């Protein structure tokens, strides 16, 4: 390899080494699954490749980031050559999981030019190993081989894409119920059973991408108050899951709002049906006169 290309590859490799932990954390928070990050080192193009560590690079979805021109990244999501069992799981995904996966793709800005090969971007399905999604991310302020550009591409494109795949695969374990005979002594450790929809990390990711970090009631942004310790916005179901008389399709766009911890606790002081965000906001206005 010529010296200039070798140095360029080493430069991206250095960026990857420094940012591997940050990239993995961004993806873990959005997908709820372990992530592996590797280097794509070709003769002409060098970039980053990301996959689910549990599945391996050849047995599941892989996201690839490559420089495109002087200011852009091209992103490609595809499946490894031995993904048969993973694809079988995906084909078994229900209506709710499919809706959330599609919504995660739609949350990517139209400026990123997301395309799904041979399919409508609003009604796509992962039917076989030929599934491929692509996007183009143009960076206005950073060159594509910088740490800032790589992290931005991961956060804005790779995270929702891989989160969608995690939803279809089923990366979301549910705790087993606690036996009725469990002793009731204060201070003892116990397992808490939480509904799958309530604890799904992809719900939180999608809610914040669609509605932002500001509380829907008090309009406070925890980042403004707590700085780096401020990632504490919570996700609230507008229709309590426990009150559903029968299962219904889950709408990931309209069923969730972000609430700060105080407002979230406050809406649930009314039982069995919580206050709506509008009702709580009106209570707060009346209190302030």
Automatic annotation (TrEMBL):
InterPro entries: HNH_nuc (IPR003615). The keyword Nuclease applies. It comes from the Bacteria. Keywords: Endonuclease, Hydrolase, Nuclease, Plasmid. Gene3D superfamilies: 1.10.30.50. The keyword Nuclease applies. One of its GO terms (molecular function) is endonuclease activity. This is HNH endonuclease.
């Amino acid at each position: 390899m010529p010296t200039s290309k070798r140095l360029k590859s080493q430069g991206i490799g250095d960026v990857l080494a420094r940012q591997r932990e940050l990239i993995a954390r961004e993806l873990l928070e959005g997908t709820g699954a372990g992530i592996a990050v590797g280097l794509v080192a070709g003769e002409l193009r060098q970039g980053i490749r990301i996959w689910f560590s549990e599945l391996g690079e050849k047995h599941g979805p892989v996201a690839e980031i490559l420089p495109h021109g002087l200011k852009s990244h091209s992103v490609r999501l595809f499946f490894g050559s031995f993904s048969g069992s993973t694809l079988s799981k995906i084909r078994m995904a229900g209506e709710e999981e499919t809706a959330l996966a599609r919504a995660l793709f739609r949350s990517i800005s139209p400026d990123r030019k997301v395309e799904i090969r041979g399919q409508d971007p609003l009604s796509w399905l992962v039917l076989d190993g030929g599934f491929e999604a692509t996007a183009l991310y143009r960076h206005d302020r950073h060159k594509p081989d910088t740490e800032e550009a790589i992290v931005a591409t991961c956060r804005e494109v790779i995270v929702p894409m891989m989160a969608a795949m995690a939803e279809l695969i089923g990366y979301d374990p549910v705790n087993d119920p606690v036996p009725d005979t469990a002793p009731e002594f204060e201070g003892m450790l116990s397992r808490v059973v939480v509904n799958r929809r309530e604890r799904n990390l992809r719900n939180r990711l999608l809610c914040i991408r669609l509605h932002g970090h500001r509380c829907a009631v008090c309009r406070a942004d925890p980042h403004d108050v707590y700085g780096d310790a401020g990632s504490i916005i919570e996700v609230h179901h507008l229709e309590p899951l426990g009150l559903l008389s029968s299962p219904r399709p889950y709408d990931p766009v309209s069923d969730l709002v972000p609430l700060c911890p105080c407002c979230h606790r406050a809406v649930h002081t009314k039982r069995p049906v919580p206050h709506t965000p509008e009702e709580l906001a009106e209570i707060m206005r009346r209190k302030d006169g």
